[in-house]
Amino acid sequence: MKSIPEGAVAYRRTAEFNEENVPEVWLRPHSTKRGRWATINVLEGQLLYVINGESREEIRLDADHCGVVEPGVGHFVKPLGKARFYLEFYR
Is the model's pTM score more than 0.90? Predict the structure, then answer.
């Protein structure tokens, strides 16, 4: 998993979501726009973060491990039981 590039600036944070109200689009493969990065920040519980880049990666995210979303790389999340999380977008 990559890191947010140096100099990238946060420009938007989503509301908090949980296993019951996570947007449907985040549960199936999708990607961010060119030049847009994001972090997936877990406040409680765990998420499975699946990256469909050059090779498939499956990463468990929790309060100590955030996910980084690369521009244009397919990915999705799956709550693993009770979870609270939000995304922060960078450009």
Answer: yes
With a cut of 90, say whether residue 81 has pLDDT above it.
yes
Indicate left, alpha or beta for 28 from its phi (over 0: left) and psi (-120 to 50: alpha). beta
**What are the two backbone dihedrals, phi and then psi, of residue 10, each rounded to the nearest 5 degrees?**
-65, 135
Domain edges within the chain: 14-90
Q: Average of pLDDT values for 34-59?
A: 95
In which residue are the tokens 């985040």 written? 26
**Per-residue pLDDT band at 54 (split at 50, 70, 90):** confident
Distances in whole angstroms, Cα of residue 23 to Cα of each of 3, 26, 44, 78, 85 = 24, 6, 17, 11, 12
DSSP bridge pairs for 39: 68, 88
Phi-psi region of 7 (alpha: psi -120 to 50; beta: other; left: phi over 0): left
Instruction: For domain 14-90, give the CATH number.
Output: 2.60.120.10
